[in-house]
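Section 3.1: Structural characterization of target chains.
Under the original work plan, the team committed to producing a structural model for every single-chain target entering the pipeline before any wet-lab resources were allocated. The record below documents one such target. The sequence was received from the expression subgroup and is listed exactly as submitted; it comprises 274 residues.
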Amino acid sequence: MPFQERKKQTARIANYKTNCGNSISGDVSGALEIYPGFAASGLFCVAGISVGETSIVAISPNRFPFSGSFPEIGAKTGFPLQDTDPPNRHFILHKPFDFLSQFKGNPKNKKLLGHLFPFPEGTMAIGRLDQDSEGLLLLTTNGKMSEYVRSRKVEKEYYAQVDGLITPEALEKLRRGGLEITHEKQPYLTLPCQAIILEPSPTFPERSRRVRDDRHGPTSWVSITLTEGKNRQVRKMTAAVGFPTLRLIRVRIGQITLGSLPSGHVLEVDQFEL
């Protein structure tokens, strides 16, 4: 078919305008040119719209001069030309005891993360810590980052203070996996994990509510490293082997550690070094 007959200057103009938004204004009916299988090889602003059997929509250089590079045949391009989305922001928080890992809602007499720092709109906590738990909490405005950190590709390490002197047998049960706990009211078998006793015991500042007095019996500390994260999983695991958790502090996510960040403090970073 002759080249001139393949021109469809008015085809899908409404669709073109919808995809282009406000990036180009004015009457485009005389500028819109559609070429089946066209290989971009001139000063055309490629819109990347698929119309029927066509693969590329181009703007005539006479109407809208453009300089730049072009995709290969069959490649897809996108609009708008300018990215108007704000850059993502990332935060490291030492979550204090008695705070909920959420921003919205109005639970009675509950403390929310927004009370600690003026986080931007759209910030989400990655892998929540329950109200009684403390320690490392990552927050981001990037949903893909949140999904990655919560995956099994990233380890999460917890220090748990348990009731009693935990035994080698109990540690082995934790490591081996297959412990039956409940998740969403259904039985769940845990995966193998790392579990070691911490000697000497770590020294953390007293939390706002003391765990208990030593007169009620000895306690011990254990490090548990998981690649999964069910609701209150560490607490359920230690209870399943006979040593209920009294205090729980997350100390590491991937390569990011809690370090000396004080409770309640927030550190903004350019990216998470996981």
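The chain has a mean pLDDT of 79.
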